[in-house]
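Re: beginner question about structure tokens

> Can someone show what the tokenized structure looks like for a real chain? I only ever see the sequence side.

Sure, here's an example I had lying around. Input first:
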Amino acid sequence: MINAVAVSRNYAYAAVDGAALQVIDISSPSNPVLVGSYDTPGDASDIAVLGNYVSVADYAWGLQILRVGEPMPPIWPAATLSTNGFEATLTVSVRGNYRVEWSEDLVWWRSLRTLTNVLGSVRVVDASALSARRRFYRAVKE
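And the corresponding structure tokens:
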């Protein structure tokens, strides 16, 4: 069953029970083509798209944030809230030192982790996020 659909550019993103996210190329409306899918741990109930990011409401598994790329179908998790806590993969294109910070109000920022001399993809986990009401994250180049 399709629970929600969001459209961005030439793609429709569908939240589907049992299949989570499905990406459909609708550049030719009379001939839609399934170009990608990603099976989240739960059942997708809602979906939103902003730029190259798709947010999937995944019932008991919470919010799954996925990054989609061109050409399709590259889809991979950008950030998830799981039983391990908040997990994110940062993609660093300029080698350097970065400080990952979190905030509950976007005013006061606290250091979570310092990344030294990084380049490429780095996985960051915040186990304390499980008990937080809400959290915002940012990476600051030092």
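Each token stands for a local structural state, so reading them left to right follows the chain. The first strand starts at residue 2 and ends at 8.
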